[in-house]
Amino acid sequence: MKRFYPPDAGSPPVGGAADAGAADAGLAAGIAEEISRRLARSAIPIPVGVSNRHLHLSAEHLETLFGRGSEMTVLRPLGQPGQFACGQTVDLEGPKGRVRGVRVLGPVRPLTQIEVSLSDARALGIDPPLRQSGSLEGAVGVRLIGSAGAVEAPGSVIIAQRHLHLHLADAARLGLNDGEIVRVRAGNPSLRPTVFENVVARVSEKFALEFHLDTDEANAAWVKTGDVAHIA
Length: 232
Hints:
Elements: H1 16-42, E1 46-51, E2 54-56, H2 59-66, E3 74-77, E4 84-93, E5 98-106, E6 113-115, H3 118-124, E7 130-131, E8 140-145, E9 150-160, E10 163-166, H4 168-174, E11 181-186, E12 194-203, E13 210-214, H5 215-221, E14 228-231
């Protein structure tokens, strides 16, 4: 049907259909490119590291708990470069109970930080916040008991937010930026495959590619250290 344009409506648009078609084609190409990028990214395997309850000690607390002049003894290296599990362990004591044999991780940090699961927190009778490692805002306290002494550690306990460690090269390959939030799929498809929301990407030249989650999360998805996950 021929369209009628009243005299005051001006001339009919020139090339309107062609322009709209080009815009639609450009949009479709952009969507296809994004889908292709995401499919390629989701095929890249990411090692899983299950983080059991542990703590990072300040030099002051290390000496209080294990004796003057004490140093951390290396038990085994961890997945992240320069980090290691120590031979030393401590007990955590809260209002409701005690969690024994919590592994110290090295190296020494400026501030003591304790990372527990929600199950651990309930056993201790404390209510720590969900935080990224290194952020102690709102952290709660417990008593630390070592082989040579004990100390109160206020403002030190958190539940670590699940996160993805990436080296700069891995971040470029996966198209991720530091602080970006992604979804990660983990678990055997025949058991309890799980998509984890709100995974924080942490990018540094000091990191190695690894997906970190705590024991509660890992058990829910039937996942263990050394398994493989993928960005969803």
